[in-house]
Write a structure and sequence with these properties.
The structure is a single chain. The protein is mainly alpha-helical. It has 2 domains: 86 residues, no CATH class; 108 residues. Strand 2 and strand 3 form a beta hairpin. The longest helix is centred in the C-terminal third of the chain and has 37 residues.
């Protein structure tokens, strides 16, 4: 038996022994592609989330989603348990690193700072923080909307070879990569805070 077949069979035996099953997928069913828009175009689903029936009974709302990457042709997967977490602690202010990718960040800070001139420095900072929290909340919603819109447009034109559709797909992909970059910065900052 070839080495690769031996490894695959061993993995399948372990999956069967543990009585794992595939949780399925939401969204684009392929997690890897190569040679887009050529005769050699390959689409594969490489990643899978496996679980037992007992686990599924404990987390009946669990779902698996693809996670697009800005730097790879391989999409990871994200498992959400569908469980609501309640947090009662007040959220402290921190400057979001992804804001630096926004073209109007400098204007937002300057406008708020100018508005508070003449007040004690503590009040100016408090006013600036309040404004940036609201401004940042709107920016976060906008980049999530950009990501969703770009994904929808990419899905619409993904399998078309029409030149107009290819141009639309490439524009959407560029917008998607920019939004993914902001999202990556956002999550990197969180990983540092909680790591």
């Amino acid at each position: 038996m070839k080495y690769l077949e031996w490894r695959i069979n061993g993995f399948l035996e372990a999956v069967n022994f543990c009585r794992f099953f595939d949780l399925g997928y939401n969204g684009n069913r392929f997690t890897w592609e190569r040679c887009r828009n050529t005769q050699n175009w390959v689409l594969e689903r490489l990643n899978r989330a496996l679980a037992t029936r007992d686990w599924q009974n404990n987390f009946p709302n669990a779902k698996v989603f693809p996670v697009e990457s800005a730097s790879s042709d391989h999409a990871g997967i994200f498992l959400t348990l569908g469980v609501n977490v309640i947090c009662y602690a007040a959220k402290p202010f921190w400057f979001e690193n992804f804001w630096m990718k926004e073209i109007d960040i400098k204007q937002a800070v300057q406008t708020t700072w100018e508005h508070g001139k003449g007040q004690p420095i503590a009040e100016m900072i408090k006013s600036c923080v309040a404004y940036l929290l609201e401004w940042g909340k709107n920016k976060k919603q906008q980049f999530k909307a950009k990501l969703k819109q770009a994904k929808a447009q990419m899905t619409r034109y993904r399998n078309s070879s029409n030149p107009y559709h290819l141009q639309s797909f490439n524009s959407a992909k560029e917008a998607h990569l920019q939004a993914l970059e902001q999202q990556n910065i956002y999550w990197k900052q969180r990983a540092k805070q909680h790591g």
